[in-house]
């Protein structure tokens, strides 16, 4: 079911216009009644969409897209578009706060029991986990089994912590086949940040839209090439956006 909310179009995608608290309240309050698939695209996801048509279709199939990137928001502002930022990490943390003491069941896909035990000690609501094998992207049978399991899961909210593009692609498969109500939400490394398994960038970096820089400085060999690719992808998307706006005048 598609939630009717105000939206803006940018970089070829429709983004919902709502703040963090409203987004968390929507997930916390409607999972028992509605079937929904929510993604939080950042620059990397937008760049992957540009390169891969199947992945782009999966993101566009989502019931709701929330902008995860302050970089994207600032670029949008240059085009005169007001694009709120709701990061997956902030959304997950606030959602858990709102669910504390409730009977709302959350199923986490891709974390581990040690991390979930830490969260169970902190929050009083039903929290379950499914732990797919490593290399899931290259194991089609294991992936089919995971999709079948999630289609029958009774949880009101299912969080995908499988990384991009695997998380969004798998969630889209579940959304296409699942008939039960519930919210499918792709949250990346959010659980790792909440448990301390990964350290999130300090507020100074986050407030200035430089979380990507902090992460790259801490893991330059792995993330350096990725962010360089994303930078050139962002330039390409800006050129495409500018061209579309000039043509539509």
Task: Please give a structural write-up.
- The model has no long low-confidence stretch (mean pLDDT 92).
- The two termini are 34 Å apart.
- The chain is an alpha/beta fold and 249 residues long.
- It contains 12 helices and 8 strands.
Question: Topology, pairings included?
Answer:
Elements: E1 7-10, E2 13-16, H1 20-30, E3 35-39, H2 43-51, H3 53-60, E4 64-65, H4 70-78, H5 88-99, E5 106-109, H6 113-122, E6 127-130, H7 140-151, E7 157-160, H8 166-177, E8 182-186, H9 190-195, H10 203-207, H11 211-218, H12 220-247
Parallel strand pairs: 3-4, 3-8, 5-6, 5-7, 7-8
Antiparallel strand pairs: 1-2
Overall residue-averaged pLDDT value:
92
Strand content: 5-15%
Number of strands: 8
Largest sheet: 6 strands, parallel
Give the terminus-to-terminus CA distance.
Answer: 34 Å
Helix content: 40-55%
Which shape, going by the Cα principal axes?
globular
Structural class: alpha/beta
Count every helix, treating DSSP H or I runs of 4 or more residues as helices: 12
Query: Nearest-angstrom radius of gyration?
Result: 18 Å
In the predicted model, the low-confidence regions spanning at least 5 consecutive residues are none
Which strand order do you get reading across the main beta sheet?
Answer: 4-3-8-7-5-6
The quaternary state of the protein chains shown equals single chain
Q: List SSEs in N-to-C order.
A: EEHEHHEHHEHEHEHEHHHH
């Amino acid at each position: 079911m598609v939630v009717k909310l105000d939206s803006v179009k940018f970089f070829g995608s429709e983004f919902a216009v709502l703040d963090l608290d409203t987004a968390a309240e929507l997930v916390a309050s409607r999972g028992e009644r509605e079937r929904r698939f929510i993604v939080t695209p950042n620059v990397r996801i937008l760049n992957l969409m540009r390169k891969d048509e199947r992945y782009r279709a999966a993101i566009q199939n989502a019931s709701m897209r929330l902008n995860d990137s302050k970089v994207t928001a600032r670029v949008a502002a240059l085009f005169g578009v007001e694009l709120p930022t709701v990061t997956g990490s902030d959304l997950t943390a606030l959602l858990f706060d709102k669910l504390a003491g409730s009977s709302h069941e959350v199923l986490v896909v891709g974390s581990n029991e040690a991390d979930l035990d830490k969260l169970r000690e902190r929050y009083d609501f039903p929290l379950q986990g499914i732990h797919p094998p490593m290399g899931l992207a290259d194991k089609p049978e294991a992936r089919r089994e995971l999709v079948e399991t999630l289609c029958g899961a009774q949880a009101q909210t299912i969080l995908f912590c499988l990384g991009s593009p695997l998380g969004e692609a798998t969630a889209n498969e579940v959304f296409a086949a699942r008939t039960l109500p519930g919210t499918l939400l792709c949250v990346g490394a959010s659980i790792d940040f909440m448990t301390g398994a990964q350290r999130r960038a300090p507020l100074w970096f986050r407030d200035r839209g430089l979380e990507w820089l902090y992460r790259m400085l801490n893991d330059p060999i792995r993330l350096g090439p990725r962010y360089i690719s994303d930078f050139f992808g962002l330039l390409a998307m800006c050129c495409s956006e500018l061209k579309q706006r000039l043509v539509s005048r």
